[in-house]
Design a protein that fits this description.
The protein has 250 residues and is of the alpha+beta class. The chain has two domains: 68 residues, Vaccinia Virus protein VP39 (Rossmann fold, 3-Layer(aba) Sandwich), CATH 3.40.50.150; 117 residues, no CATH class. It is built from nine helices and four strands; from the N terminus they run H-E-E-H-E-H-E-H-H-H-H-H-H. The strands form two sheets. It has a two-stranded antiparallel ribbon. Strands 3-4 form a two-stranded parallel sheet. Strand 1 and strand 2 form a beta hairpin. Helix 2 packs across helix 3.
């Protein structure tokens, strides 16, 4: 879409029943000034609830994929690079990827890379099932009893055992795409508000509360962490994330 086509598209946009309103925006900066047209409309809306399943990632303070999709589909072409310098949970890189663009992203938080990269290279569900079936999480070397504010000790042992499995494979240089995917899903399922998470009722990992705060939550809700098996939850979430996935070609 050319610049002129984009402007016409914005001016005539009325998909959600309202027409674009154009106002002049007068600006000045460092001795320069000018007038820029400003467009007002509802270009993406809460009524748009259908997004690709790879976007369905529990993460507080994120925008809906319809926002980057709106601009990516109009301002870039298939095969173009799309860069997000603050990618967070990866909404923009994933949107670019699904639009057959080449995503580039960066974030100061290492959690971001761990939860975005695997969704740009999804493994086959059959490989995920095979890897999960091969894992023995019955024994863990380390212990973190203070975390029992979040997890039942049975659940906590599985989480630690899974972490130790990843660390051993990373040290050996053998972490593959399936491991990265499982780690991504496990990170996303660590803490949350429903039975699908490993924890008792809590906040998601990117807004994790302190042990002291979690104890207060437990007391106020009169709750104690139940015993949960983590591998079935990882598999269930993997099936959900991959339900719309088909291999893309560029």
């Amino acid at each position: 879409m050319t610049k002129e086509e984009f402007i016409r598209d914005i001016e005539s946009f009325d998909i959600f029943g309202t027409k674009t309103r154009i106002e002049s925006f007068h600006w000045s900066c460092s001795g320069r000034s000018g007038t820029t047209p400003k467009a007002f409309n509802e270009y993406w809306t809460s009524a748009q609830r259908q997004a690709h399943s790879l976007h369905e990632f529990s993460y507080r303070a994120c925008f809906k994929p319809q926002l980057p999709e709106f601009f990516i589909s109009r301002l870039t072409n298939r095969g173009d690079r799309v860069y997000d310098p603050f990618m967070g949970r990866g909404t923009t890189p994933i949107a670019a990827f699904l639009e057959h663009r080449r995503p580039l992203g960066n974030d100061i938080n290492p959690l971001s890379v761990a939860i975005v990269a695997p969704r740009l290279n999804p493994p086959d569900l059959a490989d995920i099932i095979e890897r999960l079936d091969s894992l023995d999480l019955g024994h863990a070397v380390e212990q973190y009893p203070a975390l029992k504010a979040f997890f039942h000790l049975h659940t906590l042992r599985q989480i630690i055992a899974l972490k130790e499995y990843f660390l051993a494979k990373e040290t050996a240089g053998k972490l593959d795409a399936v491991d990265h995917w499982i780690r991504m899903v496990a990170l996303n399922r660590l803490t949350g508000h429903s039975n699908g998470f490993f924890s008792v009722y809590s906040l998601p990992p990117n807004q994790a509360v302190s042990i002291k705060a979690q104890r207060s939550i437990n007391k106020s809700r009169n709750q104690t962490p139940p015993s949960k098996d983590i591998l079935p939850r990882i598999l269930r979430r993997s099936k959900s994330l991959l339900r719309n996935w088909t291999v893309l070609s560029f």
